[in-house]
Every structure is written in structure tokens, then in C-alpha cells.
UniProtKB/TrEMBL annotation:
Organism: Segatella baroniae F0067
Annotated protein name in UniProt: Aspartokinase
Keyword field contains Endoplasmic reticulum: no
Aspartate/glutamate/uridylate kinase domain mapped to chain residues: 1-277
Alphabetized Gene3D superfamilies for the sequence: 3.30.70.260, Acetylglutamate kinase-like
EC number: 2.7.2.4
Amino acid sequence: MMKVMKFGGTSVGSPERMKSVSALITKSGEPTFVVLSAMSGTTNSLVEISDYLYKKNPEGANEVINALEKKYLGHVEELYSTEEYKQKTRDFLKEEFSLLRSSTKDLFTSFEEKCIVAQGEIISTNMVVNYLQEIGVKAILLNALDFMRTDKNSEPDPQYIKKKLTAIMSQNEGCQIYITQGFICRNAYGEIDNLLRGGSDYTASLVGAALQAEEIDIWTDIDGMHNNDPRIVEKTEAVDQLNFEEAAELAYFGAKILHPTCVQPAKYAGIPVRLKNTMAPDAAGTIIDNVLVRGKIKAVAAKDNITAIKIKSSRMLLATGFLRKVFEIFESYQTPIDMITTSEVGVSMSIDNASHVTEIVDELKKYGTVTVDSDMCIICVVGDLDWANLGFETIVLEALKDIPVRMISYGGSNYNISFLIREADKKRALQNLSRVLFQNKTNER
Ligand code: ADP
Ligand code: ASP
Ligand code: MG
């Protein structure tokens, strides 16, 4: 059984970091499967290049390409010590950058965009494999485009991934380090595609499940899942352990450390996920597994850009099929609903994709009076929130007593209670929750 180790953008963000990663992945001496992101900032630059090309501004795109090329050529000098590997990598980069430049000439569509955005991971993995080979490690690069595949609904196809990857692994037995690109894949039509921003975590989880790995380690720039958003709240702390459901709720509701859907493949395969800090490899990090710790609130997360839609209708009173009609409208615009609350005559729902909100509201008006609140935010409190537990709701509500709450959702799972508030109140809400839940230690029952 193998370990899967995934390193994010900051972890491979400079030649020095690439060397540290190389030391970490070779430390055990055991065969290891490594998933790498693009160097930090690169995917953003590639998105910027695509934006210029969509806007038919090849000069703008070329400026970004030139700056990126200069940066990478500098990295080559720092990373490798032999002229042989410097030249090998320069030759590779030459081809990469001429590919980027060639897309400034023709018609630009989402097909070209996905091809451009994929190059960040292709570059970082080639650079690290070349470095490992230069220092004498038996490392091999496996092309993610040969086995990562999504289906017609743009969902990963685990059966295909497993079949392809198993075959590729059996053709390459005896290596110490197997490296592949996170994020990138092919779609059902064989075209280059990706698993959306932050998707390298998802690759690691899918690969771990396909290989039946003993553990999936996600290495990043912080020592595990913190109990609140460290970008907003001070004095957050790493959580030692989460069960799969708790981690999935946190990832879905805004904890950026994990891609929203990346917990699922590991959970179904029963493979523990460990979150570790590349800058402090000895810190314990967070383990995500099947264990359920009772009686504890573990963490809080927040998801922005939420729109709340309320429909009030006297027709809902004693009517059957009302909710179905409402849901069908959202479904017809492929707009998932996050939160929902009902009363005798009304229903409120929240969505995070507001691109069809005008059409949805127009159709809902056939059935009742509709109101819309934008710039809202979901605050999700995660832990053992089994309904039989006493007092947790009170503590959480106490923390939010000064904040207007638009919706509350509780009882959908045993692991969370969620609140919809104004985005403008988010910081205050998160700070209050940290103070009440984690600094007074009142979260343990
Ligand atoms: P990577 O590039 O390694 O994938 P990300 O930037 O995607 O890293 O995720 C790590 C970042 O997630 C951290 O630097 C931190 O700012 C942010 N983050 C947001 N919420 C949390 C949380 N609850 N716990 C830990 N980190 C969080
Ligand atoms: N490089 C991609 C991004 O920046 C994927 C990832 O890092 O997970 O979104
Ligand atoms: Mg990430």
C-alpha cells in the first residue's frame, strides 16, 4: 500500500520549496505517489493570459507570458546544479512557452483556455521530476491527462481513473516516486479540462481512492484545518481530528484549505486524509477519518456571495406539490440550493450561483410574492450536533446575539448548524463565534 502526498502552490512556490518537497517525499524511502499543484501565482497568470486573449488583446497576453518565462528561467538557475539538467529544463520550458505564444494567434475559445490553464501543473511536475532525477532519485512523471477523466456531467469518473491508473502503475513498477499533476484532466470528449480552482486536492483524493492508498496527505502552508478562518479571525488553532462528514461540511462551506468535494472519494474508500504544513513538517496537523468524537464543536467556516430568495404564497397553505414546483424552477436553471427553511406560507432558500437569479425570480412570481437578498454569507458551525445533544444551539445563538440572522438551518445532518447573515457582518460573527466557542472552552459538554 502506498501513501499519496499532495503539495499545493505555496509548497512548490520556489526552487527552495521544491527542494524541501523533494526531501519530504523521499524521506521514508517507501514508494510514494505525489500530486503537485502549479507554483503559486502561475494559475492566476495563466487565467490572466486567457482573459487578455478572450478580449482580443494579444499584447497584454504576451506581456504576462514574457514575465512568466523570465521568472521560470530564473528558477532553473536556482533549482539545478548541473548544466545537463539546466539545459534539459530550459528546452522543456522553450516548448511550453511557444505553446502559450501560439495560442495568441488563433481563435480563442474555452478549449484553448483550458489548455493554457493546464500548463502550470505540467511545468511544476516536470521541474520537480527533473530535480529528483538530477539528485539520483528513481522518480517518474505520470501524465494526469492519461488517467484523470470526467464524465458527461463534468464529474470525475472513478472507474475509468482506477482502471487506467492501475494499468499505468503496473507498467511502471519499481519506481520510488511517482509524480503527477493535480487539477488537470480530460473530459468525456477527451478534451483537456480541469477540476476547477483548488482542484489538486480532489485529484489527490481520487488517486488515493483509485490506488487504495494507506493515507492521503495534503501538504499546504498551514498546520491543518483551523477552528475558524485564519484569514479573518486571530488566534485560530489547528483541529487535531475531524470525521469525514465534518471535514466535508467545512470544505463545502468555505474552509479554503480543502477543495469543496475532495473529501468524498477518500470517505467512500475509507482512506484517512491528513492535512500537514510543508513549512513545519513536524507539526501534528489534522487527521480526517471515520472516528466520531462526541460532545464537541470543532470548527466554523463561512461561504460568501450567497443570495437568499423567499417566496410567500397562500397557495402553500395545505397544498401538496408546492415545494416540488419551486425546486423544479431552480433545477431547470441548474442552480443548486444550499440552505432551505420553511414556514406555513413561505419558503426561503439560499443559492451561491446567482447567474440565473433574474429568470428564477421571474418564474417563481407565478406562485407567490418573491423577495431577494444579495451579498449574504453562510456561517457553518461544525461538530457533534446530533439533535439529542443539549445546549449547543443555545451557545451558538448566544455568540450571534448581536447579529441579524436571515435564516437558520439545523437538523439536515448530525454535524452542522448553519446561519445566513449579511456578508457585512461576517467578520464580527466569526470573531464572536471563536471567542464563545473556542476561547472559553464552552464547546465541550
Ligand atoms: P494550497 O495552495 O496548498 O492548496 P490553499 O491556499 O488552497 O493552499 O489553502 C490553504 C489556505 O487556506 C491557508 O493558507 C488559509 O489561509 C486558508 N484557510 C481558510 N480557512 C481555513 C481553515 N479553516 N483552516 C486552515 N486554513 C484555512
Ligand atoms: N493550480 C490550481 C489552482 O491554482 C489547482 C490547485 O492549486 O489546486 O487553482
Ligand atoms: Mg488549495
